[in-house]
Amino acid sequence: MKKFFEIISNIWKIEELRNRILMTLGLLLVYRFGAQVVLPGIDTSQLAALSSQTETGILGILNAFTGGAFANASVFALGIMPYISASIVVQLMGIAVPYLQKLDKEGESGRKTKNQITRWLTIGISIVQAPAYLYSLGALGVPDSAFLLGKGLGFIVPSVIILVTGCVFAMWLGEKITDKGIGNGISLLIMIGIIATMPQAFVQEAITRWDGNGGPMLILVEVILWFVVILASVLLVMATRRIPVQYARRSASGGYEKNIMGSRQYIPLKLNASGVMPIIFAQAIMFAPGLLGRTFNDTAIGQWMEVQFQDIFGLAYNILFALLIIIFTYFYTAITVPTNKMADDLKRSGGFIPGIRPGKETGSFLDKIMSLITLPGSIFLAFLAVLPAIVVKLMDIQAGWALFYGGTSLLIMVGVAIDTVQQVNAYLLNRHYDGLMKTGKNRKVA
What we know:
Elements: H1 2-13, H2 15-34, H3 48-53, H4 57-65, H5 81-96, H6 98-104, H7 108-139, H8 153-180, H9 185-210, H10 215-238, E1 240-247, E2 249-250, E3 256-257, E4 264-270, H11 277-285, H12 287-295, H13 300-308, H14 315-336, H15 339-348, E5 351-352, H16 360-395, H17 399-402, H18 407-430
Antiparallel strand pairs: 1-4, 1-5, 2-3
């Protein structure tokens, strides 16, 4: 404990790091405040039905990502999800659109142009999603009397403008956190939204258990299991396969000496190079079976699909969900890990993998290794994604608390926390202090 307070003290001593942390906390506070501001013209006392509809299921996941803003009919009801959707679209279009491929090769200027395209696409997506959200409020149980100004254009048009502006403002907050704060701003906004719903979910679960459904001992077992799952998620995020690389050492005469005195380094290939993107892709597609079931509910197959794929904790839903995650893990890894480019860059820098010819053979070797390590990574990722359904069925855990036992929510929290800690750690080590991820005596230089 003394060591912990010493590290906190060291963090506070670094002025730049202190200012960045305070800036991050301030902008996150602004985001959380905005999530509680309800759209003008809506009676907040009549939103109970909307809250109950968004406690479980896919809407519950969406509400968690927005930090409860979706259920509050808040000005941030769309959250940062339109930006995430736009980023995914731009990334996938980069495979087929030559213009976007050209931007990737232009360095910083190309990145700025690509970011600007993503911003404009975010506005376009939010313009479509905003009226859809407003018209869906009635279907989600919000009575007509809750709309104080009615549902005419006098309410819809200003509300759409406010929702789109809220989404753009949230995007701006995320980018400002990235530039002026600590950590990835967009990811932090999602994480803080997820964490905001966690205390309520745990309290509800604890009350249920305490009243006779297992007692304090089962609550303790659930908490221990939760920490074990977090540990497994950390291992998944951090696990890498290191490929040894040896670089030729330039001699005094200008030639290269390929011997044991050359510097040896590694190419770290991540076990889960795709992050949470396969889960997000799969989750988006899982809307389709239930929609098809409702469309053809006059047939036996349609009725079966409607029932099975509306329950996110059901067997059929999770089997298909897991298979899609494994498929998308391979797909996303293939488009985000350019093994041929890695081989070319290695060849240009005078590096080689011992026993493997530089160039095409190195690319094939790296591609083979990625395929081999992606299989256990994708299976582990699929298992974590369906773990909430498993604990609901086996331990009778409430749906709201079960969502934190795996899936997108937990992996986002773990990934963002690790990334932020690593950035803080880099500041500490650069100032010759002990880092958050390293033990030992204070290494401050006198």
